[in-house]
Design a protein that fits this description.
Oligomer: single chain
Helix content: 40-55%
CATH superfamily of the largest domain: NAD(P)-binding Rossmann-like Domain
Number of strands: 14
Strand order of the largest sheet: 3-2-1-4-5-6
Largest sheet: 6 strands, parallel
CATH architecture of the largest domain: 3-Layer(aba) Sandwich
Shape: globular
Strand content: 5-15%
Distance between the termini: 62 Å
CATH topology of the largest domain: Rossmann fold
Structural class: alpha/beta
Number of helices: 17
Number of domains: 3
Length: 436
């Protein structure tokens, strides 16, 4: 098939590359001409494990192209994916200006039947709005399809190539057949393509992310309670995770969720409910818990230094909102750094992939290390904010030599408590026994 993908962020670039990998001819379009030129020259603009190999292979074999001209992208495409940003507005509602603007531009260019697919995360009723825009500006036949993505940053390529399910919202039989044909190669092992109406499809995406965010916030609440009652959240997690009605995933406590999806999707679903005069109490509580949890480690630091960390130097391991990505959107690390700087502390940070993005936020307000151990030089304590694999088994002898004091605040519960006791560290983690 001939496919156009409008937007080359995480979702658009992964979508376009993975669709090309199964033999489709894909043209990705982006208004950022500098970014397009870099991609045309084989430069991948994001870090995502496994994507670079497919990116270069499909460019070299002529199946994946990039342009800044919309007409070039959609001229021969039978399916046009919209993978555009939908950032939260001031009231929490998703901003649809990019999506609806693209729909208007597309409408003025199409002359024959096209399937317009929303890959962006959009509120219920967005397909109707896109349909209205297209109807106003074209006489050509078209179908608007909702096809939400369920990609996890860090494993997005695997998620696309081997999906546990594909959700497609359409009542147009012609579009249904095209989407079934397109996704057939990805579900050969029997995982379902679930067809439904557009509004149900749009809500499915928000419901999925909001439920997962709820699990995270629930476990963070349990972790905070564990510290008060002298219980161990890891033991609780194992105990409830063995129940298949609950499951093991998304039960790890920490310093809150971040990224491009959970924060804005929970907020947008709560706002959509409010627009229909429904008070979604659980989601409001989830957002409140997550906001507080992002700085719980700062409170632990302040308590250790008797309320005044001014003049202290902290080493930070991890800046991305999760491992295996360079994405720092809504990353807890950003909130923690802001709080520590405001308290008069200094910071040296290291992250395997996200430091360039953080430099764009903080510039010279913090220092950046070449590796994890360099960040420890002359630091009063170490804060662990992202659970990168490289941080899981450090050389504790080296850590001890470089730190001023054997003090670790672990926001991701990476280390065994007995190990920390044996090594003689002050070790303060989330929802577990304080090692002092």
């Amino acid at each position: 098939m001939k496919i156009a993908v409008v937007g080359t962020g995480y979702v658009g670039l992964v979508t376009g590359t993975c669709l090309a990998e199964t033999g489709n001819q894909v043209i990705c379009v982006d208004i950022n001409e500098q970014k397009v030129k870099k991609m045309q020259n084989g430069q991948l603009p994001i870090y995502e494990p496994g994507l670079e190999l497919l990116f270069h292979r499909n460019i070299n074999q002529g199946r994946l192209q990039f342009t800044s001209t919309l007409v070039d992208a959609i001229a021969e495409a039978s399916i046009i994916f919209l993978a555009l940003p939908t950032p939260p507005g001031g009231d929490g509602a998703a901003d649809l200006s990019y999506v609806l603007g693209a729909a208007k531009d597309i409408a003025k260019l199409i002359t024959d039947y096209k399937v317009i697919v929303t890959k962006s995360t959009v509120p219920v009723g967005t397909a109707d709005k896109i349909t209205a825009v297209l109807t106003e500006h074209t006489n050509a036949e078209f179908a608007v399809v909702s096809n939400p993505e369920f990609l996890r940053e860090g494993v997005a390529v695997d998620d696309f190539m081997k999906p546990d399910r594909i959700v497609v919202g359409t009542l147009d039989e012609r579009a249904r057949k095209l989407m079934a044909e397109l996704y057939g190669p990805y579900v050969r092992q029997g995982n379902p393509i679930i067809f439904m109406d557009q509004r149900s499809s749009e809500l499915t995406k928000y419901a999925a992310n909001s439920f997962l965010a709820t699990k995270i916030s629930f476990m963070n609440e349990i972790a905070n309670l564990c510290e008060l009652v002298d219980a161990d959240v890891d033991m609780v997690r194992r105990g409830i995770g063995a129940d298949d009605r609950i499951g093991r995933r998304f039960l790890f406590s920490g310093i809150g969720y971040g990224g491009s999806c959970f924060p804005k999707d929970v907020q947008a679903l709560a706002k959509s409910a409010h627009d229909y005069s429904y008070d979604f109490k659980i989601l409001n509580a989830v957002m409140d818990v997550n906001y507080i949890q992002k700085t719980v480690l700062v409170e632990k630091v302040k308590k250790y230094y008797k309320g005044d960390p001014k003049g202290k130097k902290f080493a930070i391991w991890g800046l991305a909102f999760k491992p295996e990505t360079d994405d720092i959107r809504e990353a807890p690390a950003l909130y923690i750094i802001e709080e520590l700087l405001a308290a008069g502390a200094t910071i040296t940070a290291f992250d395997p992939e996200a430091m360039n993005n953080v430099k764009g936020v903080f510039g010279g307000k913090i220092a950046y290390a070449e590796n994890q151990y360099e960040a420890l030089n002359d630091a009063d304590a170490l804060l662990i904010l992202t659970e990168w694999s490289v941080f899981r088994t450090p050389d504790f002898d080296m850590v001890e030599k470089l730190l001023k004091a054997k003090v670790i605040f672990d926001g991701r519960n990476l280390y065994d408590l007995q190990k920390m006791i044996d090594c003689g560290y002050y070790y303060n983690s989330i929802g577990r026994k304080l090692i002092n």
